[in-house]
Amino acid sequence: MNKVKAEPIRGLFVTGTDTGVGKTVVTAAITAMLRAEGLNAGVWKPIQTGAPLGSGLTDAERLLKSTGINERPEAIAPFTFEAPLTPLLAAKQAGVTLTLEELIASGELLTTRYEALLIEGAGGVAVPLTDDTLMADFISELRIPALLVARSSLGTINHTLLTASFLRHRGIPIIGVILNDGELTELHKDPSVATNAQLIEQYSGLKVLGRFPRLHTEATSETLIHTVRKTIQFAPIREALAVQAMGG
Predict the structure, then answer these.
(1) Closest Cα partner for 135 from 126, 143, 144?
(2) Residue 188 binned pLDDT confidence (cut-offs 50, 70, 90)
(3) pLDDT in tens, 198-217
(4) In which band, very low, low, confident or very high, does the pLDDT at 2 lie, cut at 50, 70 and 90?
C-alpha cells in the first residue's frame, strides 16, 4: 500500500464489529448531540453500497434526515454503489477503480464547512476498499480516533475484542465502545446482555460508553438527542474532539 499524506481532520470515525450493527443511528445521534451543544458538526459517509442515492434507503440519506443537516446526499457520500457487496467489489462491478487518495480527497470540502466530522465506515474494519487496502488503513491515514459500535447480544464480546485488536495493530486510538440493541426484539431472552459490557471492558481495557436502545419511533434529531442523554456517557466524545481542537 502506498502511503497517502492526508490533511489532519478533526473528528471521529464510527466503525463497527460488522455490517448492520447500527453505525448509522449512532453516528446520527452523536452528530445531533454535538450540534445541540453548539458545535458545527457534519457527517461524511465516504463509501456506501446496497442502494442508489434518491431511494431514501442509503446511510447518507438517513444521516441527513436524522440530523437535520442541510447537505446534498452526494456531497457527504461521494462514492455510492447499488450492488450489496463489499466496497471493493461493488465499485469494480460499477466499473470504478477506487483509490485511497480519491477517498481521502472526497472529504476535503466537508472539512472546510464543519468544525468536526463524524465519519461512518462501511461494514467492519477489515472490509476491503481497494486491491491493497482495508477500511482500517483508511482510518489510519485519516489520523483520527475510532468509536466502535457493537451489537448488544450474544457473540459481541468475541467480535468486539477482535475488532479492537485489529485497530490497535494499526495504531488507531479507540475512544470507546457503544453497544447497540438495533432491531433485536428478543433481548430479554439473551442473558449475555447483562454482562457483555463488563466483560468487554475487562478483556479489552476499553470503556463501554453505553447501550443505545432500539428506537420505537422515527429517529428524529430530538429523539436521538434525548436517547443519547439518557443512555450514553458523552464526556469522552467531547474530550476527544477538544483534544484534537488543541492540536493534541
Answers:
(1) 126
(2) confident
(3) 999 999 999 999 999 999 88
(4) low
Q: Indicate if the pLDDT at residue 8 is higher than 80.
A: no
Is the pLDDT reported for residue 13 higher than 90? yes
The DSSP call for residue 8 is P
Q: What nine digits make up the cell of 140? A: 489510519
Q: Judge whether 63 and 43 are in contact, CB under 8 Å.
A: yes
Integer Cα distance of 43 and 119 in angstroms: 6
Question: Does the pLDDT at position 247 exceed 80?
Answer: no
Q: Give the residue carrying C-alpha cell 488543541.
A: 246
Q: Is 12 helix (H, G, I), strand (E, B) or coil?
A: strand
Q: Which of 175, 180, 163, 173 is nearest to 228 (CA)?
A: 180
Residues marked active site are found at 45
> How many Å apart are CA 204 and CA 164, to the nearest integer?
7
Are 53 and 77 in contact, with CB atoms under 8 Å apart?
yes
- The CA-based angle 45-41-72, given to 5 degrees, is 50
Which runs of consecutive H residues, i.e. helices, occur in the chain? 23-36, 59-67, 73-76, 87-93, 100-105, 108-113, 135-142, 156-169, 196-204, 221-231, 235-245
